[in-house]
Specification:
The chain is of the alpha/beta class. It is built from 11 helices and 16 strands. It folds into 2 domains: 6-178 and 297-387, Zn peptidases (Aminopeptidase); 182-295, Alpha-Beta Plaits. The protein is elongated.
Length: 388
């Protein structure tokens, strides 16, 4: 069984603090990418830089590796656009930027796994350490894939994790199937003929149609989607070009919907178009619907979820592992990796107290150093188990 030493745990915390103090945004990761590459080279791991602009891939082969499986381990490196207000000795030195989602910890723990596997790991096969840019905007995974990631580094299974405040520190949670929702942004335009509010009979009023469209959108979840499945549809913005005594010519509706299956992603878009078309015909308007599919569903395959559960239990014991955990309504671009390669994404509890208990993207949030050995150990246990 994998055992992460106190010395390595301390090193990982030091690496995390260094990354935390110098947060970098989207694809602009010169300090972080260089630090990751430097550390991998220290342990004689083959390094490939500039994958997907600023991604880094480390390749480690051991034992009788030829013809054996390759495992991908993924961590994201980017920060968020937020001013840090928490008080820690390693507080962000970049105004308006912070590691408020824990990617500093994700990166440090994968580095820890890389060091352990390079210096102590016992396996036969290949490990690909996938350090990814720009998870926050859903662009980094696709950039790496489009840059030939899995053509250059053929991978049989891929694993990743996210820390979750509110869960017991160091506990591991997972489930098979759709584990994180797709995110789909929509824009609906209703175009009529505006004019003075005193003469509505001479106008084509999009305001009345607006109420019908919003009611229709809300009915998609309750009347179109199977009640045993989960879909969230939210209208978040309404814009008009009118004034208080003027019926507007145009109304724009914006919002977000999330699903756990591609089938429901398609179905919601279809129903949106039907609802808008019906409202426009009823009120003599023109209309259009635009949907931008930002994140796909992150899907955990059955076999890899079983493997992840087995590894987590071997590492921590059954009391610390939930193999039938809850899915999350937030989105993650790990889903793009999982579309190409079977994999499993797990959640590791960040704790419930102090800065570790603040939820992700809170300016007081901080990744919990105590879970670094758990995350690194999980990665290593998966590798030694799957490549035994």
């Amino acid at each position: 069984m994998v055992k992460i030493s106190l010395e390595l745990a301390k090193e990982m915390a030091e690496w995390r603090h260094k990354i935390h103090e110098h947060p970098e945004f989207m694809f602009d990761l010169p300090i972080t990418s260089a630090f990751v590459a430097e550390k991998l080279k220290e342990w004689d791991i083959e390094v490939h830089e500039g994958i997907g602009k600023s991604g880094v891939v480390g390749v480690l082969r051991k034992g009788d590796w030829q013809g054996k499986k390759a495992i991908g381990l993924r961590a994201d490196m980017d920060c968020i656009d937020l001013q840090e207000t928490g008080e820690v000795p390693y507080k962000s030195c970049v105004p308006g930027k912070m590691h408020g989602c824990g990617h500093d910890g994700h990166t440090a723990s994968l580095l820890g796994a890389a060091k352990y596997l390079a210096t102590e790991g016992n396996f036969n096969g290949t490990v690909h350490f996938l350090f990814q840019p720009d998870e926050e905007h859903g662009l980094g995974a696709l950039a790496m894939i489009n840059d030939g990631l899995f053509d250059k580094f053929p991978t049989d299974e891929v694993y990743g994790y996210h820390n979750v405040p509110g869960f017991e520190a160091g506990s591991i949670h997972m489930c098979a199937g759709g584990v994180m929702a797709s995110e789909n942004l929509f824009t609906i335009n209703l175009i009529g003929e505006g004019g003075h509010a005193s003469s509505p009979h001479m106008l084509a009023d999009p305001v009345v149609a607006l109420s019908q469209v919003i009611s229709g959108l809300q009915s998609i979840v309750s009347r179109t989607i199977n009640p045993m499945e989960t879909v969230v549809c939210s209208v978040t913005e309404i814009h008009t070009d009118g004034a208080r005594n003027v019926v507007p010519t145009k109304i724009t509706i914006k919002g977000d919907y999330r699903t756990y299956t591609t089938k429901n992603t398609d179905l919601v878009e279809q129903r949106m178009n039907e609802i808008v078309k019906g409202a426009c015909e009823a009120y003599n308007l023109k209309g259009d619907v635009h949907v931008s599919r930002e994140f796909v569903v992150s899907y955990n395959s059955e076999a890899e979820t079983i493997a992840a559960g087995k590894a987590a239990i071997a590492l921590l014991g059954e009391d610390k592992v939930n193999t039938n955990g809850e899915k999350k309504s937030f989105s993650e671009d790990f889903g793009f990796f999982a579309e190409k390669v079977s994999g499993c994404f797990v959640f590791i509890g960040n704790g419930t107290e102090g800065s570790n208990g603040y939820f992700l993207h809170n300016p007081n949030y901080d990744y919990n150093d105590d879970i670094l050995p758990v995350a690194a150990g999980f990665f290593c246990q998966v590798v030694e188990q799957q490549l035994s």
